[in-house]
Amino acid sequence: MTETIINKAALLFEEDVQLTEVKDYGFSWDDFASGKRPIPSEGLKFDIHFEGDVTGEIIEGKIKGVDYLTVRADGRLFLDLHAAITTHDGSTIYVKETGINDNGHLRLAMDFHTNAEKYSWINYKHVWGVGTVDFATGKVKIKGYQN
User: Fold this and answer.
1) In degrees to the nearest 10, what's the CA dihedral of 47, 52, 55, 58?
2) Segments of the chain assigned E as strands
3) DSSP label at 119?
4) Band of the pLDDT at 147, cuts 50, 70, 90?
5) Residues 93-107: tens digit of each pLDDT
6) 54 in Cβ contact with 15 (< 8 Å)
7) What does the pLDDT look like over 39-61, one tens digit per residue?
8) Neighbouring residues of 6: CB distance < 8 A, sequence distance ≥ 6
């Protein structure tokens, strides 16, 4: 089903980011990523900082933000990203991405806000993101699609 929706949607941009820092709350990221310890019954929280590039025909620039990741006891990962895109021409666009990480495969709903007139059209778009994350390297690739 996801592939059918994407085939009918237009690619708006691509994100190529790197995880830069992880803040844990008493359970190390390394223990989680390696599976060395079982996930506690109360789940886990991590603040994962990232930055990288946004490329596309209409939007191009740098993105920097934090994913306030929740890991449930059953291992399900819920993403809550807040970031800013600084476009190549100096405008700033706020981005909120929510979704899931299913074994390294990302499925995201993206919403935006800016007061920059050139990019204000994106305030009315709801964008779907699909991508991958490699925990070993910290590399993330996402494609943002709009209907």
Assistant:
1) 60
2) 10-24, 44-55, 61-71, 77-87, 92-102, 105-113, 127-134, 139-146
3) G
4) confident
5) 999 999 999 999 999
6) yes
7) 999 999 999 999 999 999 999 99
8) 128, 130, 145
Specify which residues 43 forms β-bridges with.
Answer: none
Let me know how long the chain is: 147
CA distances, 113 to each of 91, 120, 123 (Å): 11, 7, 5
DSSP symbol at 104 = T
Extract the tokens encoding 48. 């994962």
Q: Work out the pLDDT band at 135, boundaries 50, 70, 90.
A: confident
What distance lies between CA 32 and its chain's CA centroid?
A: 19
Distance CA 142, CA 59 (A): 14
Which stretch of DSSP H or E encloses residue 134? strand 127-134
| Domains of the chain by start residue, with CATH | 2-146 (2.40.160.20)
Best CA proximity match to 85, nearest among 108, 62, 59, 112: 62
Q: How far apart are CA 135 and CA 43, in angstroms?
A: 18
Nearest to 115 by CA among 87, 81, 89, 91: 91
Residue with tokens 């994913």: 67
Among 33, 95, 30, smallest CA distance to 67 is for 95
Helix (H) or strand (E) holding 2: helix 2-7
